[in-house]
Amino acid sequence: MQFRDGFSATHKVLLLLSMVVITAAFFSTPEFSQAVLIPDLVQPESGFAIPMVGDMVTEPEQEAPQSQVPAAPIQPLTERYEIQPGDTLSQIFEEKGIPATVLHRLLEADVEYLSLETIRPGTMLTFVYSLQGTLEDLALEVDPARTITFSRQGDDSFLYQKTEADTYWSPVVISGVIQGSFYASGIEAGLTEGQVVEIGHLLKNQIDFRRSLRAGDTFSVVVAKEMTGEKLTGNTQIDSVSLHRGKRTYNAFLYDGSYYDETGESITLAFRRWPTSKHYRVSSPFNGHRLHPVTGRKAPHNGVDLAVPYGTKVLSTGDGVISRVGNHPYAGRYVDINHSGSYTTRYLHLSKVLVKRGERVKRGQTIALSGNTGRTTGPHLHFEFHISGRPVNPLTANIPTSANVPENKLASFKTQVSKQLAMMRVQEKSASMYAEAATGTTAH
Ligand SMILES: [Zn+2]
Which CATH number fits the domain 168-266+410-439, given the four candidates 3.40.50.980, 3.10.450.350, 2.40.110.10, 1.10.2020.10? Predict the structure, then answer.
């Protein structure tokens, strides 16, 4: 059914008939339950097509038909939709009358990125339709700085394009005093749950968070918030941590994507190169510039395909937190892991996933069994390694080792450390002055 073009008399009759069937469905969705739409259904002659275009931003004028007025030029229609809790893409597409085959072609275009898997309540989608009512473009606003556009090509497939605005990191210092657990004190000071857990992970080899901390110990964290222009993107990173326990201080500093102590010694484990205990034949190499064999268009292979037998143990290549577990028609069952610093890994076509979202995993831990799910030509493991959100060749990239900051970068590292320590000290001083002013005593 095509609702989105101009309406001839014949179309109107057909639409009236089809409306009987679909009205109930429209009223059951939030965007169609707005009072303003209801009179149009009561008086179909006053432009009954409007409920069908829903929350479109630009739409052809649908005034009451007046034969003496020439038809307004018909524009392609744009419709914005904000993801609601409980929404699924297939349900949204069904409600909009877009065929399931179109959604499948979008998912196919997204297989090397899995961007559509990130939609969550509040995410904005923009649908652009042709005059014939066919979906031409789908734009996904990942965050205020990043938009993914899927554009329909001549062969009805979709082309994935990412646009990114300039971003920068804006640091803030968050300080607090331990009262009870570090977890509770961190949340109280304004850190997120994820940040508190990450700090615990960063300092876990230096200090026992459960046993060694005492009431009155203090901490400072430089949290960088990613911005584009004046807007927050929602991405944050921990730039540095200082934990004071009695006279001792435990530090972690982010430098070049990895964390080090104040002397420049690595505090995070090196990554494994392979996500399996043995090495296997590479059945398809990483290729960021691959061209599609048929269409000749850019179709990168953002990971490496390893010819592992079905059911092989898949290992996390580093310590981290499971950020996503999903099942995709083309990528199959998959797992995404967030590691400390700027690193993420991804594992596709799994037969069985052994971890849950939010779970902390260790380097070398079995997270899944390999398989043949999604669109494959046989059992294999597709493995990706991303640095700051960009896929790199996992077998050759300069992956983090547990070595110290290299000699030639030590000076720049130390400069950064002094700046961050100074930022944290300023904040700690003003916080303790507040505390003294408030209680009239010096903390001891
Ligand atoms: Zn692959």
Answer: 3.10.450.350
41 burial class (0-12, 13-18, 19+ CB within 10 angstroms)? middle
pLDDT of 435: 62
Using DSSP, state whether 14 is helix, strand or coil: helix
The predicted pLDDT at position 39 comes to 29
Q: Does domain 78-164 have CATH number 3.10.450.350?
A: yes
Ligand 1 center–CA 112 separation, angstroms: 8
Where along the chain do its domains lie? 78-164, 168-266+410-439, 282-392
* CATH of range 282-392; options 2.70.70.10, 3.40.50.10190, 2.10.10.90, 1.10.1740.10: 2.70.70.10
Q: Tell me whether the CATH fold assigned to 78-164 matches the one assigned to 168-266+410-439.
A: yes
**C-alpha 220 to ligand 1 mean position (Å):** 42
312 Cα: distance to centroid of ligand 1 (angstroms): 16
Residue 100: is it exposed, middle or buried by C-beta count within 10 angstroms (0-12/13-18/19+)? exposed
Distance 102 CA to ligand 1 centre (A): 23
Whole-prediction pTM:
0.77
Q: Give the E-state strand segments of 354-411 in sequence order.
A: 360-361, 366-370, 381-387, 390-392
Q: For residue 301, how far is its CA from the centre of ligand 1 (angstroms)?
A: 6
Q: How far is the CA of 325 from the centre of ligand 1 (A)?
A: 17
Q: How many angstroms is it from 304 CA to the middle of ligand 1? A: 6
Q: Tell me the CA–centroid distance for residue 224 and ligand 1, in Å.
A: 34
Q: How far is the CA of 310 from the centre of ligand 1 (A)?
A: 15
DSSP assignment of 294-344 equals TT-SB--B-SEEE-PPTT-EEE-SSSEEEEEEEEETTTEEEEEEEESTTEE
Ligand 1 mean position, distance from CA 145 (Å): 28
Residue 68: predicted pLDDT: 54
CA of 371 to the centre of ligand 1 (A): 13
Residues with CB under 5 Å of ion ligand 1 are 305, 382
Taking the centre of ligand 1 as the mean of its atom positions, its distance from the CA of residue 332, in whole angstroms, is 11
CB-CB contact of 132 with 2 (8 Å): yes
- pLDDT < 70 stretches in the chain: 1-76, 432-444
